[in-house]
Amino acid sequence: MRLTRYIVRRLLLLIPVLIGVSVLTFVLIRVLPGDPVLLIVPETATEADIQQARERFGLDQPLVAQYLTYLGDVLRGDLGRSITTNTPVAEQLARRVPLTLELIVYAMGLALIIAVVGGIYAARRAGRPSDHTARVVALAGNSLPEFWLGLVLVLIFYQALGWAPPPAGRISPLFSVPPITGFITIDTLLQGDLPAFFSALHHLMLPVLTLAIVITAPLLRSVRASALEVIDSDSYRCAESHGLKDRVLLFAYLFRLTLIRLPTLAALVFGNLLGGSVLVEYVFSWQGLGQWALRGLLLRDYPVIQAYVLVVATFYVLVFLIADLLQAALDPRVEV
Amino acid sequence: MAVVDDLTHPPAKRIRRGGDGLIAAGSLILLIVLVGAVAAPWLSQWGPTEIDPIAFLEPPGPGHWLGTDGNGMDIWSRILFAARIDLGVAVASVALAVLVGGTIGLATGYAGGWVEETTMRLLDIVQAFPVFILALTVAALLGNSLHTLILAIGLINAPAYARLMRAEVRSLKNHIYIEAAECAGNSRLSILFRHLLPNALTPLLVIAPLNCGWAILMLAGLSFLGLGVSVPTAEWGAMISTGAADVVGGRWWTSVFPGLALFITVLGFNLIGEGLLQRTGQRR
């Protein structure tokens, strides 16, 4: 009951943020120089044609009226139509979200495993060479521009070694996978098409690796720091001096206590990935959310950008809510 | 309380706070990059946008140490000249962020009340925005000259500094020395700038180097997407972007070398930042 109340309260707090974000987006993109209508009308269009196109998208209305119409539509679940392609934005969004999510969920999973294992390993050997190595590697990973790393991985694993597929698309063109969930690894499995599944994994390999390398650094550093804190704590030292087995110490004490701090940072990393996926998507020609938003921004496709920002901001807040709930579940001292 | 603590707990094992090595290594890297940037015209015989008409996409060799790009421009020379822009934009944008964010944080933290509440909620909104889209939008809005890029990257960074400064000021303003300063009849401005500011500034300056590294990556990322510096300005991200098309043909030098320069510079900033965090005891 208290949990439900907490969740409802947090979701209610989401409303003012989203309204603020939508107003800011709305105003920002409309003061951008460039007129989307001029991009879609034919070159021979007369002034009247342009005016008509403008009316079709409601762009002739005053800004406040436009916003209120937009807000009303969004509340009814209508995100509008793309100005440049004239298709419903919600439809495009539904197609794009799984692509990006698939990429970053796998990258997050991989990075979390490396960070937890590596971080605890480094903490248990604090001050020794292996610890220093882990930290230097993490620092270096944090300094890598992800778009360049992606290119280098393509050079090595596609160009030189031929292990990876060309950086275009998410499955070999030999396969056709009718979308069910939109997540290609899930869809291929649901249809029992194993060769297609492996082709999809193959295509995911490099972009996921690129993202994982870049995001592992902050996670590993945080895991190491909290593991060190646990190791230095009285309770851990007590357990240690009671002569508990190493395995028990590792899993029942160190592992569990270290994980408590992880959800908040993981949420931050996840949120940043979602809003920053565009560079890696660009390198690997991944037709996800990031590329969609970039195209929308370049063509001044107002409804597209508005929808993108709204979705990313919502995800961002939701991920933090989930992280807080997780933390409360992991740490009995934290009350929601 | 503190006294009791001291009595019951023996002083913690005196640990030498590391970080000096990291700071030295980072400073050395940045010094080399800086020398390269300043001495660029003397270290290379080619100009940053000078075209060698008989060398297009030439691999690294004696004529062009790091090869040439598809326009026949010398990669080594462009990398050197690019350091001027990348370093300049990074430092200038972070300085701007510290200035703007710090001022906002200082004022709101000291003022408190609804001013503080409103400002923080506004910052919430800005921070819930996808960073990259915000940067792209501001850059597109203001046009992509170097000044507007500095402005865009700096303003995006400002909320973080505002938060940090506000938190510092809030914890400092209840200290006895501030109360003493108030009792001594100092004006509000004097308390703000002579008593609060010097003490609250340290945490901002400690994270500034890390932020410089981030700002360079941001600038390079924007340029990589074609929204940063204008072609053919020598800038690392823009160079990688030009080189990206050559990768599939196996011509690696057009993108690998500028990326290395970018990576090493960011690493330099991060080493210093990490070292500073260790020295101030925020990280072990």
Question: What is the topology?
Answer:
The complex is a heterodimer of chains A (336) and B (284).
Chain A: H1 2-31, H2 36-40, H3 47-56, H4 63-75, H5 89-124, H6 129-143, H7 146-160, H8 184-190, H9 194-232, H10 234-241, H11 246-259, H12 262-275, H13 278-283, H14 289-298, H15 302-330
Chain B: H1 2-8, H2 20-38, H3 40-43, H4 75-111, H5 113-128, H6 131-142, H7 146-172, H8 176-183, H9 188-224, H10 236-247, H11 253-279
Helix pairs in contact in B: 2-4, 2-11, 4-5, 4-7, 4-9, 4-11, 5-7, 6-7, 7-9, 8-9, 9-10, 9-11, 10-11
Care to give the gist of this entry?
The complex is a heterodimer of chains A (336) and B (284). With 336 residues, chain A is mostly helical.
Q: Whole-Å distance between the termini of chain A? A: 11 Å
Number of helices of chain A: 15
Q: Biggest interface, and residues per chain?
A: A-B, 49 and 42 residues
Query: How would you classify the helix and strand content of chain A by structural class?
Result: mainly alpha
The whole-number mean of residue pLDDT values of chain B reads 85
How is the main sheet of chain B built?
A: none
How confident overall, as mean pLDDT of chain A? 86
Distance between the termini of chain B: 26 Å
Approximate helicity band of chain B: over 70%
Helix content of chain A: over 70%
| SSE pattern of chain B | HHHHHHHHHHH
In DSSP terms (H or I, runs of 4 or more residues), the helix count of chain B works out at: 11
Largest sheet of chain A: none
| Strands of chain A, total number | 0
Characterization of the model:
Chain A has 15 helices and no strands. Chain A is mainly alpha-helical. The radius of gyration of chain A is 24 Å and the shape is globular. Helix content of chain B is 73%, strand content 0%. In chain B, helix 4 runs antiparallel to helix 9 (188-224), helix 6 (131-142) packs across helix 7 and helix 9 (188-224) packs parallel to helix 10 (236-247). The longest helix of chain B is centred in the first third of the chain and has 37 residues, at 75-111. Chain B is elongated, with a radius of gyration of 23 Å. The interface between A and B is large, with 49 and 42 residues.
